[in-house]
Design a protein that fits this description.
Its EC number is 3.5.1.88. The chain is α+β, with helices and mostly antiparallel strands. It is built from three helices and nine strands. It is 26% helix and 31% strand. Strand 5 and strand 6 form a beta hairpin.
């Protein structure tokens, strides 16, 4: 197991759709261990495989003292009438938080290392995390979901940070 370096905005791996995991081998087992160790730090809610440079569909979470993972997650349900509009941040966009509209409830279905079905669901922070991490696996950042005026501010803040 290893604490892995987080890839940040500008790294092409973050904009690449991750490939499904077709075989659980030592590489995938090691990936899961690294995801679990890397997310298990205060202030970290979720971590997608591409955020540590691996283009496979897997993520881990650390919400309310529960740490877990899911392989090949699919976002199968979100609340259509209830939304949350709180600030969202990202390990790959360090130090910046912006209001991001997300569904209040979300459910993801995937599998574990033994091929058993895993269902992860929740409201508020867990729902935000599930939507955020599946977006990562699809090559999206939360910045892509910002309203136009907020996105403009976010891009300016990122440029200032890099200067």
């Amino acid at each position: 197991m290893a604490m892995r370096e987080i890839r940040t905005v500008g790294d092409p791996v973050l904009r690449t759709r991750c490939e499904p995991i077709t075989e659980v081998d030592d590489r995938v087992r090691s990936l899961v261990e690294d995801l679990l160790e890397t997310v298990d730090t205060d202030g970290r809610a979720g971590l997608a495989a591409n955020q540590i440079g691996v283009g496979l569909r897997a993520f881990s979470w650390n919400i309310d003292d529960e740490v877990g993972y899911v392989l090949n997650p699919r976002l199968v349900e979100v609340s259509e009438e209830e939304y949350q509009d709180g600030d969202e941040g990202c390990l790959s966009v360090p130090g910046l938080w912006f209001p991001t509209k997300r569904a209040w409830y979300a459910r993801v279905v995937g599998e574990d290392l033994d091929g058993r079905e895993v269902v992860v669901e929740g409201t508020e922070l867990m729902a935000r995390c599930l939507q955020h991490e599946v977006d990562h696996l699809d090559g999206m950042l939360y910045l892509d979901r910002l309203e136009r005026s907020v996105r403009k501010k976010a891009m300016r803040a990122m440029r200032e940070q890099l200067a």
